[in-house]
Design a protein that fits this description.
This protein has helices at about 5-25, 30-70, 80-115, 120-135, 140-145, 160-175. By secondary structure, it is an all-alpha fold. Helix 1 (about 5-25) crosses helix 2. The two termini are about 20 Å apart.
Length: about 180
């Protein structure tokens, strides 16, 4: 089995379990994300030595750092942050960037479907405008409107682990084409 195949299987298993868990319980378990980080570090170190370990650590830090910003803005849960750190540890920084864009597209499509299904498109467009206007002025949107906090009961929630799983699957499939 090639290194790429091992990496693909490892990340596919990780995000699949996370997606199912996020649908069922709205949580991504710590044991899963920690296992993903350890597997990514070990796999990359075993296959590429010290260089692989550094690449894995860089991917982990990139995933964690990018999603930590979203967590601090209260737009993402902590499980999503840890999951993206684990994905980064497995696929490295270049792979993580591809997964990030795949996740953004998948998440956008899933969110659009959800807001249309829940008949909240107009409200969501207004919220998006408000969020952008607050961020442009370097203000956290949730401080002005608590309903924009992902933990607020009034906010429309989507299990982001599913978007991460879908985005990762799309990237893996497109890499094979």
């Amino acid at each position: 089995m090639t290194v790429n195949a091992m990496t693909d299987i490892c990340v596919a298993v990780l995000v699949s379990i996370a997606g199912v868990s996020d649908i069922r319980s709205r949580r991504i378990p710590n044991w899963l994300t920690l296992s993903g980080v350890c597997a990514g570090l070990a796999l990359n170190a075993a296959t590429a030595g010290y260089t692989g370990l550094l690449r894995s650590a860089a991917g982990m830090l990139l995933g964690f750092g990018a999603y930590l910003v979203l967590y601090c803005l209260r737009a993402m849960g902590a499980g999503d942050v840890k999951l993206m750190a684990a994905v980064g540890a497995i696929v490295g920084p270049a792979g993580w960037i591809a997964v990030f864009f795949g996740t953004a597209i998948a998440g956008g499509l899933l969110a659009l479907g959800l807001v249309i299904f829940k008949r909240r498109l107009r409200e969501t467009l207004w919220n998006a405008w408000f969020i952008v206007s607050e961020l442009v002025h370097f203000r956290a949107p949730y401080k002005q409107r608590s309903d924009l906090d992902v933990k607020d009961g009034r906010s429309l929630k989507m299990p982001h682990g599913v978007a991460i799983a879908a985005g990762t699957a799309a990237v893996l499939l497109l890499a094979r084409v």
